[in-house]
Structures are given as structure tokens and as C-alpha cells.
Amino acid sequence: MQTSFTLAQLADPEIAAADPILRACVHCGFCTATCPTYVLLGDELDGPRGRIYLMKNNLELDEPPGPELVTHIDRCLSCYACMTTCPSGVNYMHLVEPMRHRIEQHYRRPFFDRALRAALNWTLPYPTRFRWALFGAQFAKRVGNVLPGRLGAMVALAPATMPRPTAQERPHFYPAEGERRMRVALLAGCVQQVVAPEINAATIRLLTRHGCDVAVVDGVQCCGALTHHLGRDALDFARANIDAWMRAVEGGGLDAIVINASGCGTTVKDYGFMLRTDPIYAEKAARIAALAKDVSEVMAVLGVTPTRPTGQRVAYHSACSMQHGQRIQAEPRALLTAAGFELAEIPEGHLCCGSAGTYNILQPELAGALRERKQVNIASTGAEIVATGNIGCITQLQSAARPIVHTVELLDWATGGPLPPALA
Ligand code: SF4
Ligand code: SF4
User: Fold this and answer.
1) DSSP letter assigned to residue 334
2) How much distance in Å is there from the Cα of 83 to the middle of ligand 1?
3) Residue 275 CA, ligand 1 centroid: distance in Å
4) Each residue of 201-236: pLDDT tens digit?
């Protein structure tokens, strides 16, 4: 795609980063077929190629974003299926996320939209605030959830029961069982530790059982993904985490920073790009990003051998941030198979389930349509259990029909841990 930025525009680091990405796009349109919003809406401007055109025009004309651009960028899930499909290697993520920031800086949304986004950003990355917000949502649910639209969608996502706060989110060191094979830090996360603390507990048991020293490092907070996808500045989260993990790196070394929510993993692995122009943090950010690993990548190195009979038929739902954001496809499937489960492939597995961070709150109709489509595809596998590696998908795909658990909960159970609560 030809671009026509002036030299003055190219002096802006955001434009300088966008220009080669735009030029890599050859308008072939292969990406449209795998874009969930294009599949649902059939509108070129709700597919990646159309969005790329809109962004290019906006940047070239150096205009404030208008309602048309905002509508189509807001409908984008940031699922990055288009990046997996693109034969030209167009890095759509590095176009759309800066555009979300540009929109937040230069576009005045309607009052309710602004208030909702501000409330989500104030609440979700902070476990204590989020816990209180969930108590409110549970109360609204109990009295019948009469709230309309996006507020109703938000309340509907609240879990029926709230787990108690647990100890494993606090800074702590968990020694390896037996001979030490790795030394890792675990990102305890924000939303996940409130709604499903059993995932961190299973991760710590699984890693220590397989020879990892595991540290939950003091000073580490939310990875910043939710704030980043809302178009707001998440760099303070990134800098705080980099400082905390660098202390651990310099204080004894780390083989990996283990992340068990793939949405968070995609963001931490992108810290190097996010802070590329920061003279103090650029190098450290690249180092931390290189250490970041999904728990399935680490367990693929360590290997699993089941110690109890398993054999259940498991539909593995590959989260977009796992398969498209991090290009991790084989490891979770191989681990589940090695642990003795019968793996079922979900048709249309490349399509998002509609969770996508805060998308299921901000775009409830599209998210609901994608959830229904995914549930039908899951049902067609005849699986007894659904496994995935991202808390957003677990929340989105909760169903009375079959339990959904994190992959590590199944691996932990198969290798000697307790039965996952969702299977009890
Ligand atoms: S597949 Fe890649 S090159 Fe083709 S239109 Fe989509 S983004 Fe552009
Ligand atoms: S990120 Fe997902 S929703 Fe957005 S354009 Fe790409 S494929 Fe479509």
C-alpha cells in the first residue's frame, strides 16, 4: 500500500512505526475471511483491510478521528486473527493499538461511553476495587438484572459466587519439589486472581511439582493490557512491572516470567515495542519481554506425565491472544494429550469467542453473537470439558452444558493436584 507521509509527519515516532506496516499491506484481502467482525457483519470497513484504509487516511490527513473511524475501530476485537492469516506479515496490532490511543486523546465520546470506559479502567486492573464492583454486580444480578444494554451485559458476566481472596497472589517464594530445573516469576494478574484464584494455585503446584522455583515478585501489578486496549496509557503499569522483575533478574536470575492468562502474555511480550522510545526503559523492556512465556511454553520444556487415570474428552479453545497474539498452537494441545486427555478440535477455532478484554461489555451484541457461535461449535465436538488458557474466555464461555477450566488446572489434576473446582 502506497503511503504519502511528509517528512515532518515521519518525524513522529507513531507515524514512523505505522508507515512500514501500512506499506507491507498489498490489499489482497485474505485477512477478511478470518476476521470475526467481517464474518458477522459483511462490511469491508468491519474487516482488517477496511480498517487499515481508514487508519491510513486518518494518519495521512492528520485529522482528529471522526465517528466513522471510531465506530469501526471500536468494533475490532484486537483478536489478531488477521495477523495469522496475512501472507505479507502486516503487524495490525501495532497499527490498531496506537490508533485506540489516538482516538482516546482526540475524540470526544458520548457521556455514557466515557463514563463506562473510565469506570472499567478505574476498576478492572485493581483487584480490591474489582472485588467490590463484583459484589455490586452480584447484588444487581440477584434482584433480576434489570439494567439495560452494556450495564446489563456487565452484570451478566459477574460470577454467581465469589471466591475468597487467597494467599498465592501475595509476594512469596515457592521452592521447587526435588531438584530445581528452573527459576521463574509468576504474574499473579488482576481480574483472574479475583474471579478464579484456583488458576494461580494450580499453576504454582504444577510448576513446583515439575522442578521450578516460583516467585510472586513484590511490586508487580496488572500487566496493563485492559488499560492499553481501552486506548489509555498503560506504560506506568509496564514500567512498575519491569522494575520489579528486573530486581528479581539482578537478584539471582530468572529463566522465565510465567504468565497464565494469554491476554496478559501478549501485552508483556509487547513491552519492548510499547517502550521502544523510552530512553530509560527501552532496553529493560525488551529484556523482560524476551523472558515472558506462557505457562504452556514452560511446561512444554518441562514435560508432564500423568499420575492418575484421565481420558476425558476435552475441547481445547485456543484463545485469540494465545493462537494469534503469541502464535502458540501446539504446546497446550500436546500437553493435554500427554496428560492423557482425549483432545477434540473445535470447528472455526480461529474465530474469537467475543470476550476480548472489555469487548463483551462495550460491544455486547457482537460479543453475544460470537459467544453463541462458539458454544454451538463447542457442542458439536461432544466434549465433556472445555479447556483454555485465558480467563477472559473462561468468563465468556461459562455454560451449564459443560464445565470450562484453565489448561493448567487439568495438567495439575492429572499430575497429582486436586480436582479443578469447576469439575467437582
Ligand atoms: S491479508 Fe495482509 S496484505 Fe492482505 S489485505 Fe490483509 S493485511 Fe493487507
Ligand atoms: S484484530 Fe480481529 S476483529 Fe480486528 S480486524 Fe483483525 S481479525 Fe478483525
Assistant:
1) H
2) 8
3) 26
4) 999 999 999 999 999 999 999 999 999 999 999 999
